[in-house]
Amino acid sequence: MLDVKIYDTTLRDGSQGEGISFSLDDKIKIARKLDYLGISYIEGGWPGSNPKDLEFFQVMRDYNWENAQLAAFSSTRKAGINVKQDSNIKALLESGVKVATIFGKAWDFHVLRALETTLEENLAMIRDTIVFLKENGLQVFFDAEHFFDGYKNNPEYALQVLETAAQAGAECVILCDTNGGSLPWEVSAIIDQVKQKVDKPLGIHTHNDSACAVSSSLIAVQQGCVQVQGTINSYGERCGNADLTSIIPNLELKMGKKCLPPGRLKRLTEVSHYIAEVANMPSSNSQPFVGHGAFAHKGGIHVNALLKDSLTYEHIDPEEVGNHRRVLVSELSGLSNLLYKARELNLDVNSYNAETRKVIKQIKELENEGFQFEGADASLELLLRKAFGQYKEFYQLKNLKIIMEKNEAGEIVSEAIVKLSIGDEIIHTAAEGDGPVNALDNSLRKALNTAYPEINAMHLRDYKVRVLNGNDGTAAKVRVLIESANQYDKWSTVGVSENIIEASWQALVDSINYLMMKKQLTAMPDNN
Hints:
528 residues; alpha/beta; TIM Barrel; three-stranded antiparallel β-sheet; 17 helices
């Protein structure tokens, strides 16, 4: 039995965020992933607003949901129209859902200025719509739009809106901070007043315009709300909606409120990153609980304490939300950081060994030159394994030449010529590419793919260049970060030089060498 029901509106409210546009296929994938997480209610969209949402409901009509119930969103009937004739309500019924979420105005200012109708007609619109949907066998939730602003300006009317929805048969009345301007203690005090007037289960729906959406949602639960609405990764209009990836673990781990089926919390990070990929939005590195850096430690004092007990600098075990601890090695690192990293890589490192301190010094010198290993774990692992004798050279570069040509038509053609040795064999190859980096990649792969066919399965996912000392103009030093992946894993590498081609070459070579090294280590016998 769940203490709090999570109502996800990523597919509707989340799609209103800047830069987000879900295709029908995207919506289907996300809905299934939310069900996999164990969300109670998934709001699929507004069937009366666009054909895509209506098609989504038609496609998902017979889907075998494991945990979730699919909900459709809609406004109340329009002013002056019989509810049976309202096109939005007709579309909602045609969607085939069993759960409907209806929103209505709870702020008199909106009723008079936005809807341009009377306060009495607004109440009738709410009442008629809920009664009609209940008569058609639907479970109905009522979103009281702009409720907190409405209560602050006219508490009597805002409460009248809630009472009307409750009396009409709404199973849950959701209090919405639509403009996101309310502070948590205001939310708490107002809910305390609502409980004295409305004898129905309450829910909360907050926006993040004051950076208070999560805290306001949590305090609403503390005040008795049993439904929390929000989106994955805080996607939504303006500054976004309440972030369910923070609300869910706080409810479960900090407040003792069950809101997911047993064992599902461990899927939270996976689901967050999956939906970010489908939405084509970058995952926030510092996002609480699920961010790649949420449990990343850089300071030597912190890491020294972590080696003794992880509770010294972590508020939860990252595994509880499907994340993992990361220790970064940089110019701020001490011996503890390197020891922790060595433990991760199963390296035999003596904390008092001169070689260990030599490696730390080398890392600090490289970072002073512009290398950034905290964003390039693969390059760091290569450096450490080379230092401690767990790496062999796969090939040796003999010569490298890049030719760029611009013809009369303005087309630019790049060609890279690579000469290298693998054992006693000399290999000489050339390849063209869309640019010099692409040509380098193609030529190096061409030279190596016979001896090391595993590189054919890898591909470049991301390529970033940062100017490190802009005051030097075109002679500035640059840092290149490359992210590569195959079907099993992804990894990042770094290169630094005044020459962007050289920096790219360093990162590219590390990327390929890392993949081959991982295969080499997998093939090594276990000596333990």
